[in-house]
Amino acid sequence: MWIGVFAGLGAGAFWGFSFLAPRVVPAFSALDVSAARFIVYGLTALLMMAWRFAPSRLPGLRHSLSALALSVLGFTGYYLLVVLSIRRLGVALPALIMGTVPIWVMLLGKPQSLRWAALLPGLALTAAGLWLMGLHSAQHAATGRLDAAGLALACGGLASWTAFALLNAAWLKRHPDVGARDWTNWLGVATGLGGALMWLAAGTPATRLAATPGLGVFLLVAFAIGFCASWLATVLWNVASQRLPASLCGQLIVSETLFALCYDALWARAWPDDMQLAAALLFTLGIVAAIRAHHGSH
Fold first, then answer.
1. Segment (H or E) for 199
2. Helix intervals (H) in 99-174
3. How far apart are CA 13 and CA 26, in angstroms?
4. Which of the ends of the chain has fewer CB neighbours closer than 10 A, N or C?
5. What's the pLDDT band for 232 if we cut at 50, 70, 90?
């Protein structure tokens, strides 16, 4: 269990880097940054497959289709829904809606052996932390224009990543013969293809991209988040998904927000305000409560 817990926390630590990336390269669009991240993830996966190549490690047709479908749910399709919702609603409301992913994964992924009463403290602490973060975002961001389509897109993004977390964990448990690294590579190839299509369809043309100041930093950031926040984080997340119930994995997703707050504070050289610190404390206590509850159920 503890290997899974530390793997899940490690994934959150690397995912947190992706929140800092737009601040490091503000001259580049969010779509370009994300497409570059996905392409680097795909190229990394291909290199890893080539490095340890063996015909037995290649996916069959059914496994390939599963990787393609889950890459859309957890990476490219999810991102597209979130970006479209942000265009209609602004940042604060979609961020708050997506912040409820851990709660939905915890609720829908609860093992039958775990009593609801044991899960409730972690859920309550996480919900309180999310409420504080949402309040903080509302106070520090411009109010977005509320419309039904934007709300539907944000809820679609929420459903997409929640489904990914649950279905990915279920797939790994049904296929114990497939290692976490192999499955990460298969997902990566599918995600890289999706990222390339995303950039070709709506990204900045290559000539304009090359002329944008700070291209070298952009490429370094793309490599960092493509390798660390995508390939390595997905390996760790798959290890956690193989070893832990989906409800505990859902709680560990909160660590992404915790690490993102830390990285943002270090980058800005500013201590988080009282509301952010209170939310971080609630998130930490929620993770501890969930680990204790699941550990007691075994």
1. helix 180-202
2. 101-108, 116-140, 148-174
3. 22
4. C
5. very high
